[in-house]
Design goal:
Blueprint lengths: L1 H5 L5 E7 L11 H10 L4 E4 L6 H8 L14 E10 L2 E6 L11 H10 L3 E3 L13 H4 L7 E5 L5 H14 L3 E4 L12 E4 L6 H8 L4 E3 L5 H17 L3 H19 L1
Parallel strand pairs: 1-2, 2-3, 6-7
Antiparallel strand pairs: 1-8, 3-4, 4-5, 8-9
């Protein structure tokens, strides 16, 4: 069984930039993300909440992801975090890190590399979403560039990111930046590797991969903004959302009896 998981020869569709309600602006539970991702035919996703890896412990405790980086029930969740560095947002994928908010981007790059992960700037050039600017990018040992972000403010920011990756000869990724389960998989990266594991995906990121590039619909963009506003207005904490998730699970269990 283990051998078949590590040596399956088929494209792996992975969304490398997703948020759960452990992010301050996310609204969906990790379970909702998994269910939606499976329904859309994804092979897995990276959980990249803002400045926290709490979702990783949550998922591991519930045996929905494995500490050894192998898939669970043929579905892979990659640990990660979107760090708000001093210069802007940086995806740290394949590692569990402490809260590094406000630390220099160069230091964060070194820390994620030391932890065995990769550093990928998301939505660079996006003036409205804390993208790291080019003068800083030039100084960073990044491993790839997110050249397509489905939630980008303006489409030209994605084109600028693509041009930058070409100029530096860096690998490219595409991702949804989902903050609601309905948006997961809108954009994703397809990896052709025999190693269906976190290690296999991290190794493949450095190579040329296929990018699925679709923008969020107006409905999904509105849903993201509306749900974020509602969460902030109602002051709903992670604990509140966890209680709601547990109650929903109990109700579902009762209806299935």
């Amino acid at each position: 069984m283990l051998s078949s998981l590590l040596n399956r020869r088929m494209p792996l569709k992975i969304d490398l930039h997703c948020h759960s309600f452990f992010s301050g602006d996310g609204v969906s539970s990790p379970e909702q993300l998994i269910e939606a991702a499976r329904a859309k035919g994804l092979s897995g996703f990276a959980i990249t909440d803002h400045n926290t890896c709490d979702a990783v412990k949550y998922l591991t405790d519930r045996e929905l992801m494995r500490p050894d980086g192998l898939p669970v029930n043929d579905f892979l969740i990659i640990p990660g975090v979107e760090v708000t560095t001093a210069e802007g947002h940086l995806l740290c994928i394949g590692a569990v890190l402490p809260d590094l908010k406000g630390r220099p981007a160069l230091e964060v790059c070194h820390l994620v590399h030391e932890a065995g992960g990769v550093a990928i700037p998301p939505h660079p050039y996006d003036l409205f979403r804390a993208g790291i600017r080019e003068n800083v990018l030039n100084t960073l040992p990044i491993d790839a560039v997110e050249v397509f972000n489905a939630a980008t403010t303006l489409k030209r920011y994605n084109r600028m990111a693509y041009d930058y990756a070409v100029k530096r000869g860096l690998p490219m990724t595409a991702a949804s930046d989902a903050h609601h389960y309905a948006a997961i998989g809108t954009a994703f990266t397809t990896f052709r590797t025999e190693n269906f594991s976190v290690a296999g995906i991290l190794e493949q990121i450095s190579k040329e991969n296929d990018l699925s590039q679709n923008y969020l619909s107006m409905r999904d963009s509105f849903r993201k903004t509306w749900n974020n506003w509602l969460r902030l207005r109602k002051r709903r904490s992670v604990d509140d959302l966890l209680k709601e998730t547990s109650e929903n699970e109990r109700q579902r269990a009762r209806t299935q009896r």
